[in-house]
Amino acid sequence: MKRPAVFFDRDNTLIACNEFLGDPSKVALVSGAADAVARARNLGYATVIFSNQSGVARGYFTEQAVHAVNQKLDELLRDGNAKAIVDRHEFCPFHPDASIEKYRQDSPLRKPLPGMIHQAAEALALDLSRSWVIGDAPRDIEAGKAAGCRTILFTDPSLKASPAALAERKVEPDYICSTLTEAIDFIARHTERPAEEASETPPSSIAATIVPDATVEATPASRPGEAGRPRESVADESPLRGDRDAGVASTEEKQPISPSSAPPAKLESLASEILRELRRRHEQPLADFSVSKLLAGVVQVIVLAVLFMAFLNRDNNANLIALLLFALTLQAMTIALLIMSRQR
To answer: Does the annotation mark 79 as catalytic?
Structure first.
């Protein structure tokens, strides 16, 4: 029987890094990373890391550097928890706009395409329908969904978001969390029992066995689409959909869950998501309009005009000095406006 896997994104999911990383000495684990990998294995999942590494294609570092960083990551995980063992590393060094010709291609391995997931599944004989993807960027979620996995969007407010993480979501994750502990807790709650154990369970209790907290997760009143909660009923994700009406639905009708009785962990997750969204309001995309930048451009044009007038009056020392001082003042204003635009 094929086993499921948990696919972890690498940068800003297990490693605290929002930029290109090719130096093993700069590898630092995200809080809870080692325990998350160890717990995934204890639950019966294979553990796979899959990562876009376009820094290779851009010439920032080599494939050997990626392997060195992955090796350092493995060492730090084992130092944190002896059971935190990664079964396989997958990475994509290709990019369609690569500066190095041999890496210049639109590879099916590159997220949001699911090539790396399929490649690992073939190598390790994985059941993708029971597998999970955990990542910080929408492209991780898209890749997971395309491969048939369930997905968790990890958004740690203590980490600086990468450009990929700020991209628009085209696919909604099954769950959103702010810690890796929450992610593995959610997976643990929705991990199906082995077939030999399930066969011993009476049919009337199968739905409750697979989804122990189905009344909380599947009740429409308790999941209006807010962050930190699954987008779909877990009973819908289970292959035992025929039992939903007979088991889970009747339980939901008898025991409605009000928002005030939600578990503290979910309320904490929701609060973390709200904090993250508030912080993103102040993040300025590179392409956004900036009044400060506009004013800086106008003042810079005036500086050039004043300097031209100073050139025309170069024979008059008094006028020349006055114009140069005026140009210097305007230039200082330009610099100040640019600094203001960067601090927004």
So the answer is: no
Read off the pLDDT of residues 281-337 as tens digits, 9 standing for 90 and up: 555 444 455 677 788 888 888 989 888 888 888 888 888 888 888 888 988 888 888
Q: State the catalytic residue, choosing from 11, 136, 174, 243.
A: 11
Dist CA 52 CA 163 (whole Å): 13
Phi and psi dihedrals of 22, rounded to 5? -130, 5
Beta bridge partners of 177: 154
Query: Catalytic: 9?
Result: yes
In angstroms, the CA 43 to CA 264 distance is: 24
In the chain, where are the structural domains located?
5-280, 291-342
Instruction: Give the rounded distance of the alpha carbon of 282 from its chain centre.
Output: 19
Strands 46-52 and 5-8 turn out to be parallel
> For 27-41, 131-145, 242-256, 268-282, which range has the lowest pLDDT when averaged over its residues?
242-256
- CATH superfamily name and code, 5-280: HAD superfamily/HAD-like (3.40.50.1000)
Residue type, 132: W
pLDDT tens digits, residue range 22-33?
999 999 999 999
